[in-house]
């Protein structure tokens, strides 16, 4: 066998060893999490729920942010030209929060400015409530998940000391090993809580930026209608 062939064989063996070690490590992690007890079931469910809500809201808010790009300029040009139907059509075709808000204002053109402002404000509140849908659940998960982890750990500690009482003596190895296993529940609950907390505030920041943009566009729209000759 040549030197190059020997090196290839060695590299293959090393690669297989790395893959085997990685697989074993993954299995050990899963097995360790399963040792956290029955409390790991609701904690896992909370993690799944938090991920679903975060990604669904993230995609929705990002879509709402991108879909109204350039809408205000189209509406402004049509209003200045006296083509309200074209402006309403542009708002309707945008299918965005800003578009629906401006469409509500355009449908009130001809009425007092206060009425138009009220219609836009009400439409804006409705759109914001749609964007914020289910975000508060992330805040609830951020508070509940760590408490569930602590509950699991406390029940585990109670079980350990009950076994110690039955055995009639303290085995340091058994106690420390049991505590190590039961602390998995606390660590898992804290991890899920932190992730949900980060997701909750990240989504709220996105919504706040979108609200600021909508308010700016609404003020510009009202100023446009309030201009002489509009």
From TrEMBL:
It is found in: Cell membrane; Membrane. Its main location: membrane. GO terms for cellular component: plasma membrane. It comes from the Bacteria. It is a multi-pass membrane protein. It holds the Pfam family MotA_ExbB. Keywords: Cell membrane, Membrane, Protein transport, Transmembrane, Transmembrane helix, Transport. The chain crosses the membrane at residues 36-55, 135-160, 180-203. GO terms for biological process: protein import. Residues 95-215 form the MotA/TolQ/ExbB proton channel domain. PANTHER family: PROTEIN TOLQ, TOLQ-RELATED. Belongs to the exbB/tolQ family. This is Biopolymer transporter ExbB. It comes from Sphingobacterium gobiense.
């Amino acid at each position: 066998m040549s030197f190059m062939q020997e090196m290839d064989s060695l590299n293959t063996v090393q690669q297989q060893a790395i893959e085997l070690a990685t697989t074993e490590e993954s299995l050990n992690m899963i097995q360790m999490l399963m040792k956290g007890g029955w409390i790991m079931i609701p904690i896992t469910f909370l993690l799944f729920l938090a991920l679903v809500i975060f990604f669904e809201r993230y995609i929705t808010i990002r879509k709402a942010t991108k879909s109204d790009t350039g809408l205000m300029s189209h509406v402004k040009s049509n209003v200045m030209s006296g083509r309200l139907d074209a402006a309403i059509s542009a708002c309707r075709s945008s299918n965005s929060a800003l578009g629906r808000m401006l469409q509500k204002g355009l449908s009130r053109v001809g009425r007092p400015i206060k009425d138009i402002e009220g219609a836009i404000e009400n439409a804006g509140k409705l759109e914001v409530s749609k964007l914020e849908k289910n975000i508060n659940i992330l805040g609830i998960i951020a508070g509940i998940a760590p408490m569930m982890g602590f509950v699991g750990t406390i029940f585990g500690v109670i079980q350990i000391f009950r076994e110690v009482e039955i055995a009639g003596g303290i085995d340091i190895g058994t106690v420390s090993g049991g505590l190590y296993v039961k602390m998995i529940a606390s660590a898992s609950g804290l991890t899920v809580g932190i992730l949900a907390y980060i997701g909750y505030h990240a989504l709220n920041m996105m919504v706040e930026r979108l609200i600021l943009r909508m308010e700016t566009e609404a003020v510009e729209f009202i100023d446009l209608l309030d201009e002489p000759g509009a």
